[in-house]
Every structure is written in structure tokens, then in C-alpha cells.
Amino acid sequence: MAKKSDGYLSARESRRISKENRKITNAYEKQRKRKNVPESEYLTQMRDPNNAVEFDDLHTYFFTDNGVVHSVDGVTFEVPIGKTVGVVGESGCGKSVTSLSLMQLLQRPQGQIVQGAIRLNLGGKAYDVTKTPNEVMKDLRGNYVSMIFQEPMTALNPVFRIGEQLNEVIELHDKENKTEAQVKARTIELLKLVGIANSEGVYKMYPHELSGGMRQRVVIAMALACNPKIIIADEPTTALDVTIQAQILDLLRQLKSKLNSSIMFITHDLGVIAEMADYVVVMYAGRIVEKGTAEDIFLHPAHPYTIGLMASKPVVGKQVDELYSIPGKVPNPVNMPDYCYFRDRCEMCVEQCCGDYPHEISLSDTHKVSCYRYDGKGGTTNG
Amino acid sequence: MHKYIIKRLLYSLIIFFFVMLIIYVLLRCLPTSYLETVARQMSQRPGSKTYQEWLAQLEAQYGMDKGYLLGYLEWLKNFFTGNHGDSWFYTVPVIEKFHDTVWLSFVMGLIVLIFEIIIAIPLGIVAATKQYSFTDYTVTVVALAGISLPTFFFASLLKLVFSVKLGWFDLFGLVGRNYEQLSAWGQFLDKAHHLVLPIVTLVVLSIGSLMRYTRTNMLEVMNADYIRTARAKGLDEHTVIYKHAFRNTLIPLVTILGGSLPGLFSGALITETLYAIPGIGYTAYHAMVGGDIPFSMFYLAFIAILTLLGNLIADLLYAAVDPRVRLA
Questions:
Q1: Which of B2, B17, B140, B267 is 20 to 30 A from A24 (CA-CA)?
Q2: Are A160 and B247 a contacting pair at CB < 8 A?
Q3: pTM, 2 dp
């Protein structure tokens, strides 16, 4: 049945959708809640052992009462060991959902990974997160993969002391090896590591007694507690002012080199990405439009969307009356078109743009773009 | 902290003064006057004084010939010096009658409160964690039925099924026919047996609101960012719900439970009346209908004090469970 363009749904239709959704999500939930799943079901092989994470054709959908939202619709990229990968895109393009898929922290039961694989390299073993049951996943979370959330003001539990909240992670994943005193010592060490001077004092404080920057440091300390192999930083500096922002970024960079972890850095701040990232992935409406090294993206942007993004950021020393903004708006996520999602906003359309969604075209070994403008021009197709 | 409590107690004293003043004036204005009734009866005796003379004599005798304010101040003086007087309606000292009836209601109220907490809060949590599931809908429907049923209807229904049809319990009363012949243990069991239906009535009717309240708060907390942080740490669902989420749900719940302190002592008027249980609700109701000013004043003063204390306790508990709240 064709949906009306204004997004209006009758009560009956909405009921039918939610009933169908319930059936689908229940099946996924059941799958994930199983106990004693044999390891062979979720262990896998990395395509390249130098990668920490490989996202392979990831599809994450939200089954809402208004219809299925294709939040992440076929995302493929990898995070090499010891490198920082920046993920950029505007609000709602699926950056956060991609990272939450890796953590298995999607809003359940509506949000589900429906297709694809996320391979997680933990040295000896490689896990396919999409198939890993809850029981096993909880041992990976916070231990091997951890996440720095974007809302420092609300990400800490208001009723527990900072020390208690940090101890909890360490006790949870490293209980056998540490006495209570050692756990406390580790917590204090972590607080010092993230640049909190009065660590003994902060240990006994409640979150509301700290400033936003301090809380963000605590959240970072929490993420680093077990020396994770992969740190997901989901807009860790968005809520902070610029001076604190610079400090936090410095801190993350230092820690990365100290721990040799990989960082997946999510932001919509291109300046931050330029400073932090080795590789950049540009997402638009749930898909990757362009990816490459930081140099590829910043010096040779290829996709019209990336070019637009670059044009819309202020440049020091250049006088402009009005900043450039990309015309139009993102298509409705429930009802995505079957042609290039960016076509309606694009100023550089070519004839083929009326066809299917463009496949990925390699401009160089590292630089990939999904745009017809480069079809057959120097690149090899591998879609 | 001590300073805060003392300050609050002083405020409470002021509030108490005005609350009781209003109650005193209202009671004096009641259309049912015990003194008028007695005067009317006395004046109808052969060769007696007139109604007017009797009324004047009785009012002087009971201290009701003064104005409202003077009468109130005298009552206040007597109240604080521990002189509570005799009940007019029950013709025994107020304290004695109160003491005889309040404990029954208190025990009933306490049992009801305990059941309410151990049933409603876990149900609320389960309903919230399994939102929109079959369990959630079932719990919600049962809770709403509990909220919506009028006491008299539900009590009558219980009586019909368990007393009339099944014959498991007596229809009303606190003690059975052969109470006097029973041993002490037997007498206790007899009373307990008679309290089953009233307690069931009160529990079923009270769990609904607490359960809905728990569910709503739990749902709100479960969507908070710090719950996601807790999951990101790798905690299992049980710890996330019962440690991280529940501690936060407790904050609003404590306020409600602190407010239920006067409810423990005030008795359940309708239920006690329906089951003819001589509790404080039943007793106070009859005292008030009979125009018994000393008993009603004492009862209402007691409830007022408990309400004020309950509020203070709720605020103190609030500070205890929520570190963001500082008392000053």
C-alpha cells in the first residue's frame, strides 16, 4: 500500500504496522536472549588481521509505529588497529546508530541489526557482534569495546559517587586479579590519567558536584578503565566549550598513543576530525557517500555532499557575508528514494543520477566515493 | 541538618495552630450539636427546666459558652498540658477510647502498607521493563480495575463470594460468636481471620496507584542516558534495572511513602464501617456525627501532627536517597 507523502497514517494502519513490527522484533530479541550459544555461531575471521573492527554491509533498522526507518543502510568500513577513524555527517545520518550497533546498545526492541556483519578483532578471537548473544556481549562491552557518550551532564548516574561508578567497571571485568584496595588505586590512577587534579576528592563526589568538563573526563576515564581495544567517542566534545574541547582532544590523542587502541570518532565538527582522524568516513542518510584518509577527504573531496560540507565550514582569514549551506533537506527516513539520496540537493547532477543508487567507486587505494560523476573516470568499480 | 529540622518543626507548630483553629471553628459550627441534643432530652422530662436553661447550663459546664477564639485557646492549652478530657459521645476519657481503637487500625494499615509495597513496586518494575508486553497489559488492567472499583462495591463482592457463597469468613465483625471461650492464641487467630477480607479489600484498592506510579517513573529512568552508560559498562540487565534504575526510581517513591504515615493511623472509614470493625475510622466517624467535639478535636489534631511529621520525614528521606538534594 502506497504511503501518503505527508506521513499521515490512519490509526488502523499504524496498528497494523506496530503489530508486524512486534512480530519481527520479537524474533530478533529471542535470538539474542538465548543462553549457551555455541561459540562457532558468532566467532568469525577478520578479513584483514590489521583491522580492529570491520563493518560489513551493516543494516540497522528501527521498527517504529510510523514504519521502518532505515537508519543505517549498508555501511562498510574498517577501523585499523591503533588508528583513529572519524565518522562525519549531519544529525540523523546514522553515525551514532552505527556505533551503537557495534556496542549492541540500540534502543531495544525497536532498533535491530537486520543484515550485515560487524567483525570485532580481539587478538586471538574475532567476534561477529551482530550474531553475538547478550550473554557474551556484556563481557565484551566496557572491557574490549567502550564508549564515550556525548552528554556528559546526564551520562553519569546521579545517585552514585564517582568512585563507585568507576570501581564498578573495574570490578566487573577484572575482579579476580584485584583486591578492593587495588580497584580503588586503579580508579584514582584513571582519574589522574584524564587530568583530574583532585582525584582523591573527586572519588568521593557525586556527579552533580562536578562541572561538565570534569564529568566528561570521568566518562572518558570510565571508558578507559579496562584498556579497551576500541574506543567509540560519540561527539565527546559537542557539549563542551572550546578550551575544554581542545584539552579533551589532546587527552584522547595522548591516551591513544599510550594504549595503542583504535578510536572511532563520531562528530559533525570537521575541524575536530581534521585534527584527530587518520581516516574519515562521510555518511549521508544512513549510507557512506565517501571514505578515505584524512588527506583524501580534506584536500580532494570528491562527493558533492563532502564538497558542500567543506564549503560550509568557516575559514579563518576569509571574509564572507553568509556561510554556505547545502540547499534542501534530508529525505524522509521512512520513505527513502531508490535513486541517489543526495540527488535532490545536488548541484552537480549528471544524467545517470536518475538511475539506481550509485555504487562505490575507487578513486585511489584508500579513497572511495559513491557518485556517478566519477563513473568510469580513472576509478575502478567494485560495487 | 539539626538546624533544618528545628526550623521545620517550628514552622509545623505554626501550621498546626492554624489548622486546628479552622477545625475547631468548623466543629463548633456543625449542625449536629451534642449539647443541644442532651438539653432537648433533659427539658422533656416532667418538671424539668426549660430547654434554654438546660442549654445554658450545659454549655457553661462543658466550656462551650466562650467565643470561638477563647474556647480554642483553652483547648490548645489543655491539649499541650495533656488534659484531653472525656469523650461526650462515648462517655469515657478521650485517650482511653482512642487507645482502644487506634491500634487495630494501625495494625491493619501497616499490614496493608507492607503488602502494597511488596506487591505494587515489583509489579511496576516488571511492567516497565517489559513495556507493551502481555505482562505489562495484564498488570495495568488489574491495577486500573483496582483504582476504579469503589470500596463498597468491591467489599460487597468479596463478601458475596467468600462469606455468602463459600462461607470461609464471617460477614462482619472483628470477633466470632464463641470468642470468649477461646484461648489467647485462639482469640488472636479469630481476630486475624476476621481481618482477612478488610485487608484484602484495602490492598487490592491501593496497589493500583502505587504500581502505576512505579511503572511511570521506572520507564522514565530506563530511558535516561546513565542507564545506557551502565549497559555500556557491560553490566547485566539485572544489575542495570535493580541497582542503577531502581535507586533513581526510589526518589519519587519515597515522597509518596513518607506521605502515607498519617494514613496508617487515620483508619479506613468506609472499609471499617462495611465490615463493622471497631477501628479508629469507624469510631471517629460516629464521634463526629454525634457532635463529640473533644474526641473529634483530639483525633484530628493527631492526624494533623502525623501529616506534618510525614511531610518532614518525606523531605528528610528525599535528601537521604537523592544526593542532589541538600537541606538548608
A1: B140
A2: yes
A3: 0.79
